[in-house]
Amino acid sequence: MTITQDSGLGRDPDTEYEAIARWLGAIEFAWDIERALEFALFRTYAVPSISGLLARTGKFETEPRKRYDDTELLLSEPMEHGLDSPRGREAVDRINAIHGRFRISNDDMLYVLSTFVCEPVRWCARHGKRPFTPEEIRAWTNYYRALGERMGIAGSPRDYEGFDRLNREYEERHFRFARSNKRIADASLDLLLGFYLPRPLFRLGHPVALSLMDEPLLAAMGYEPPRPAVRRAVLRAMKLRAAILRRLPRRKTPRLITARKRPTYPGGYVISQLGNGPARAD
């Protein structure tokens, strides 16, 4: 599916939401949305029922990179190729098969879906070169409503405001510290820092990452808040980055997550094998 510099412009967010969402994620806010979705998943680990399930499977701590890659690829296949494309349908079927092995409440599934809707919008408003437009917010929301339907998630709100309200109310009720939260958060944070820093520098990177987190999230993870001076420096750096991006030419070629080479799958991957046993190359 071709994605061009202008492929998300001038489209109807109620009928062409897939094209708009694909353009937002692959061209307009490629780096920002990927980071925002990482933080979206990270937020879900502050819910003990979710972190406890991940801790019981053991995969997150023993194979963190594989689990990260599998999750990112399964979510990116329908986004980049189309929800009803052969690859998109296969990825959604695979997600449903994996979730079907466990007893996961609809409320937890709906909350996770709400983080995918809300966190990219919030991230770009705080740290991006510009906020989403109202039309982009509607398209982004419609895309994840459609994904949620295909995953059998009941009760999705009809608009972004509904998802935002659901998200905030759920976190207020369910964010609380548990040892499983910190175990999964520590493994996740080390993995994400490893994309940018050698392990000996992780100690320096932790305060930077924590500066991008709010107080309820930090408390639920058992993390001490970073020093105010560190938080201010990090947020100033993000504002400087946004100012620089506003002055640079717009991206012309898509940044496709599914096309990226990964050490987990050096020979490529098969959708039906994602989330299932050791990494396999084809």
UniProtKB/TrEMBL annotation:
InterPro entries: MPAB (IPR046366), MPAB/Lcp_cat_dom (IPR018713). GO terms for molecular function: oxidoreductase activity. Residues 57-239 form the ER-bound oxygenase mpaB/mpaB'/Rubber oxygenase catalytic domain. Pfam families: MPAB_Lcp_cat. This is DUF2236 domain-containing protein. It comes from Maritimibacter harenae. The lineage of its organism: Bacteria, Pseudomonadati, Pseudomonadota, Alphaproteobacteria, Rhodobacterales.
